[in-house]
Amino acid sequence: MSIYGDYIKSVIRTVPDWPQPGVNFRDITPLLQNSSAFRKLIDSFVHRYQDMDLDAVAAIDARGFIIGAPLAYELGCSFVPVRKKGKLPFRTISETYTLEYGQSEVELHADAFHHGDRILLVDDLIATGGTMCAAAKLITRSGGHVVETATIIDLPELAGSDKIREAGFGVFAVCSFTEDE
């Protein structure tokens, strides 16, 4: 967890029973609207990764882009979007993953990385870990090396972080929420 983890967590809004009854949605909008909190969020990632000699920050569609772009800028490396199927205009590689209610697919431009590139993979939240695992596998298949996966929020009770670690990838989260928080 980041030194700003408790502060960042306090700025995130919980919306009960959305999108369905019994679900607590973790809304990062107040975090993005608060310039001081947003700066602390990006600084949390910059401080962790500034000495890791990264070649690129890959970010998952779409909220991961919000973190990934300024982070890549601050780290002086490239930014690579990992998109939902059908959103990239060039030749792609894809990875299918299982969701709670079916399957989905993420894509990456086939020429996004060079063999051995050191990649940080970011998204806003880890729930069941399917999207992050699929994106990490895509990066590995393309020749990149995933240095770590990073997120604002981890929901450990859904075991996504465990799934990502079991797949061989490190996990960093700025903060975490339990279901009753």
UniProtKB/TrEMBL annotation:
Keywords of the record: Cytoplasm, Glycosyltransferase, Purine salvage, Transferase
Swiss-Prot/TrEMBL catalytic activity: AMP + diphosphate = 5-phospho-alpha-D-ribose 1-diphosphate + adenine
The UniProt record lists the keyword Transferase: yes
Keyword Transferase: yes
InterPro entries in the cross-refs: Ade_phspho_trans (IPR005764), Adenine_PRTase (IPR050120), PRTase-like (IPR029057), PRTase_dom (IPR000836)
Gene3D superfamilies per UniProt: 3.40.50.2020
Residue ranges that the Swiss-Prot or TrEMBL entry lists as coiled coil: none
Every Phosphoribosyltransferase domain range: 52-158
Main subcellular location of this protein, as a coarse class: cytoplasm
Subunit structure: Homodimer.
Family assignment from sequence similarity: Belongs to the purine/pyrimidine phosphoribosyltransferase family.
Protein name: Adenine phosphoribosyltransferase
Native source species: Onishia taeanensis
